Each structure stands twice: as structure tokens, then as C-alpha cells.
Amino acid sequence: MKSSFKVVVIAFFLFMLQGCGFQFWYNRIAWVSTWYADDYVTLSSAQEERIESLVEQHAYWHRTTQLPRYNQFIDDVIADLNNKTVAENYDSYGERLLSFYYTILDKVLDDAVNELAQLNDEQVDELMDNINASAQKERQEFSKQTSEERREKAIETTIESYQEWFDDLSSEQETLIIELVNKIQPTTELRLDYLKEWRNAFSLALAERQSESGQKALRSLLRNPRQLRSSELIKLSDANDALRKKIQLTLFTTLSDEQVEHFIEYLNEYREDFSELVQDAD
Q: What pTM does this model have?
């Protein structure tokens, strides 16, 4: 899987909640999980307790076995920044982060499928209604914007992201970022269509959730949802990834020593969080 350099600083866990700080939310992941799930389906007290217990078990495993891997990854990225070897190892960053993701997914997948299998019909209907409502809202919000408005918003958010990583950007760097956004081929409509296909397949699998074939389908859809992408979406996504790589590596050649140091400090903030969380497990 080709990935943009943005993946270097994107969440190392299934999701990363901002606001009060990563450690704050990480230490409350069991409660957050049931709270988040309750947005989609009303759980019984027994289900909530069971899910919280499972999440706590997986969180301890993640804290003690995975966070050290993430710190090693950060160390390797920082070494590449100092040695100016980012270009040589660029592709490996996405591969390693994808490996982190699948390690987590493989660990929790059986429990997730088991919990889905135990939902009653009313809960399944509620779950699908909420998933579909959320998707419909996303499509409506997308439709309200013109292509020009989407492009301007993409430029704004992309520049803000790079400013967070590198601090002040030069006019040359902003020009490179604008060039990137302008050349990216839109895939949102194709992505929304693909996600609709996934929801339809997920609904069918849920209908058979207590059978072996239904649970096999659920595992497949949860572990590899991208299997339902159209050939056109795959082609455009690959082209966009190649474009991001080309321009982002060019951008890295323009970074000043101060910008590199700022990015290293940014990465080290995550490293410190991970280290403290590992120590708290003892």
C-alpha cells in the first residue's frame, strides 16, 4: 500500500482522540469504546461490561507490546530526518504503519465478530439505521459544496497540517502544497459508492451473523473492506498516492534545519506519550 508522508504522524492506534490529550483518552479507552459504540447501537448492561472488559484486556496488550514498536518507528523516522534518508525509506513508513494497524485488527477481530454475532435483531436494525444515516449525512454535506469550495478547503486544511508539522512555511513550500492539492484527482464520490457497497454487504453478513458463513463474511469485510473498491477508484487512488509521494519528497528537500527540528519535536511529543503509557503499565 502506497501512502503519503502524512501517515507518519497519523494515529498509531485504531483512533486517536484529540482535545484533552492522547494519554487522557488512551487511559479511558474502555469507557470511550462503549460510549462510541452506543452512538450506533443501544447496548445492554451485560454487553457494555463485556466490551469494556475485552477492551481493557486488549489495551493492556497494546500498551505493553505495541507502543514500544511505535517508539522504535519514531526513532527510525527521526534518524532518517537527521541522515536525510527519508526518500530511501519513504515507502516503508506506510508499510510499517499498515502492519501496526493489521496487528491490532487481527488481535481484536474475533472478539468483534463474536460481539456482532450476539446482537439481537432490534440491535442490528438500529446499528444499520445509524450507519446508513451517518453515511447519508456525509453524502449530503459533500453535495452541498462546489468543486471549487472543496478544493479551497483542501488547500486550507493541508497547509494547516504542514504548518503544524513544520511551523512557518515558505512561499515555495505553500506553492508545492497548492500544486499537490490542485493535481489530486477527486475520489470522494467513488469512495462513497464503495462504502455503500460495503454497507450492503455488511448488512447481509449481519443477517447471517450466527452462522459460520455469516461470521466468515463479517471477518472478511472488517479486515479487508477495500476489497469492494471499484477498479476506477483503485486506479485513481494509486495515481494520487504516486503524486503525493513525488511532491512531498520535493517538499522535504526544501525544509530548513529549523523546520526539521520542529517536526522532530512534534514526533517526540508522541514518543514521550507512548513511553509514559508503557511505564504506567508496570
A: 0.86
What is the C-alpha to C-alpha distance for residues 133 and 174, in angstroms, rounded to an integer?
A: 37
Q: Yes or no: say if 153 and 181 are a contact pair by the CB < 8 Å rule.
A: no
**CB–CB of 31/56 below 8 Å?**
no
DSSP 131-155: HHHHHHHHHHHHHHS-HHHHHHHHH
Nearest-angstrom CA–CA distance, 241 and 230: 17
In this predicted model, what pLDDT tens digit does every residue of 161-213 receive, in sequence order? 899 999 999 999 999 999 999 999 999 999 999 999 999 999 999 999 999 99
Type of residue found at 125 = D
Residue 88 C-alpha cell reads as: 530511501
Here the cell at position 201 is 454487504
Half-sphere exposure of 231 (CA within 13 A, CB side): 0
Q: Is 34 helix (H, G, I), strand (E, B) or coil?
A: helix
158, 176 Cβ separation under 8 angstroms: no
Per-residue pLDDT, 22: 62
Report how far apart, in Å, the C-alpha atoms of 97 and of each of 2, 14, 49 are: 11, 11, 31
